[in-house]
Every structure is written in C-alpha cells, then in structure tokens.
Amino acid sequence: MNIPDRKSRAELLCDEIRLLHSTHEDLSIYVLIYGVAYPLLYEQLAEQLKGQDFVRMVQIFDARGDDPLEQYGPFLFHIPKDTDGDLLRLLTSLCTSDPRGMSFLLSRLSILTLKTCLQSRLAVRCEDGTEWQLKYFDSRTLPVLTRALTTLQFEQFFSIVLEWWFLDREGELRSLAGTDDASDSYKPPLLLSELQATVFTDAAIPDSILHILEITDDDLTGAFSPQARYQIIAKALAGATPEERNSAPMLADRARLALLEALKLQDRA
Predict the structure, then answer these.
(1) Counting CB atoms within 10 angstroms of each CB, which of 29, 46, 180, 182 has the fewest?
(2) What does the pLDDT read at residue 89?
(3) Can you name the residues that pair with 71 across neighbouring β-strands?
(4) 104 close to 31: Cβ distance less than 8 angstroms
C-alpha cells in the first residue's frame, strides 16, 4: 500500500477502517491490543466505556502490572461504525507508532464468542512434548504463522475472521484472509512438528538479540530507526555459524559488529 505524502500512516489507517465499515456492514471490526506496547490503554478505554450497558471490550487474559492502571495482557475492543473520531485516531496513531501491539479483525462473531475462540488459540504443543503460548496478539507473529502452518492449520486458525489486518515492520498494511466460517472448527492445542517449531524459534532470534543490545548498547541501537536496526541484525544473524547460533553472547557480538559497520557507512555518507 503506497502512502501519499499528504496523509500520515495513522490517517490512512483510519480511512481504511471507515471503508471496511461501509463495505462490510454485516461484519464487526475489532482491534486486538497487546498491552505490553501500551500498558495504560486498557484503563483509558475502560474509562470511556463507563455507563454503557453493552460489552465493547474483553480481556483475552489479565496480566496486571504493579501499577493497577497497567494491563500488559492482550484484549479485544469493538470498533463500531459510529466510533468517535478522536478515539479512532488515538488507536491508529498508537498502532503506527508501535505496530507490534495492535491488529484489526473483521469478523461476524460477537465479541464474547471471538474472545473464547482467541483464547482457544493460545496453546501450542510441539512434537517433542514442549508446550508454550502462541503470541498471535503480537503482530510480529502473524507473518510467521503464514510460513509455519500447513494450509489446513492456517484455514482453521483464521476461520473466525474474514480478514486480519496488521502493520508489518516497514509500517505497511498487510491482510491475512480468513475463511469466515459460521462455526469454529479449530481444535486446540496447535500441534507443531519439529520443523514448524523451528520456524518460530528462528524468527524470534533477531528480536531477542535486538532486545539484548537495546539494553546493553542503547546508544548504538538508537543511531538507527527501528526498521533499519532490525534489518541489519536479521541480515547479520542469517549468516551465523552453528556455533554462534548456540550462543546468545556470540550472536549479540555478531549483531553489534554489524551495527558498528553500518554506523561507519552511515557516517561516511
């Protein structure tokens, strides 16, 4: 999606949501929010919903912080057609500033039914017997699902939506097509082969190493945009040796050197 200079990404996303409302009047639009990205947003939205006698917001699970106003877990918020423009602009502005924490679901299901369906999609069991939680509410996970799941698994997983929208790492709007089934055929947990599990673990490595460097070398990582530093690190780690892949410190060293080299080139330009 090409973004005109005269409009911000947030404004364009607002336009796309309004277009969805006008073209799919029989479906509801929900925003799936990961509280880690915006820990105070849950309370902010709850305050705006006070006094309403219908359900507009539900938690997938509760993960409160030390401050009672902080909610780090994922939650679902219904965006009706008559949503206040300021609220819609707030949501799209937050999404474009930190895309990992927000995605948009177009579904015919009620918010309570959709909550139950999403909760059933949290559990993963791998071929080796290990179990973990699938963080589909982190938008960075969605492209990994397209690579890791079989066609049948993908269809069943996304059967609860017509479309699932998210912004990729470059800030471009992407959509995953669901089957929009009348009933949910998905049976938990999500079963992954060893090869499928590897797709997830490999995809997580650049972000985990980037997190280490953001803590230990914040001046270095801060010299690049989020998109640029991720690309530099992902490219560097793609060439890691088997020995390096078994050592987080070695991977961090490799990524650090790549950032330093990129910084030198940037300074020369």
Answers:
(1) 182
(2) 95
(3) 64
(4) yes
Residues of the chain with pLDDT under 70: 1-6, 269
Instruction: Please say whether the beta carbons of 17 and 104 come within 8 A.
Output: yes
- Measured distance CA(228)–CA(218) in Å, rounded: 15
Neighbours of 187 (CB within 10 A): 9
> What pLDDT is recorded for position 52?
81
Q: Assess contact for 157 and 187: CB atoms under 8 A.
A: no
Place of tokens 């080139």: 265
As beta bridge partners, residue 126 has 192
Supply the pTM of this predicted model.
Answer: 0.92
